[in-house]
Fold:
Amino acid sequence: MTDNNNFRYEPVERFGASMTNPRPWNQGALAGVELLNGRVAMLGFLAAITGELLTGQGIVGQLGLMLRWLLG
Structure:
């Protein structure tokens, strides 16, 4: 059995109630998702910088190199 206490669900609202509610989104779940998105963005930026250091080309140049490599 898994522990479901890590998930922070809010009670279900009636249809359209979130449009007038001062808190329209599930803040607990949104905070976790935004934290994950930020960390993935940092990894992507680090990969772009590493690729630039290895190839000597910017992001657009790296995309061109990848296309040439994929298309033969």
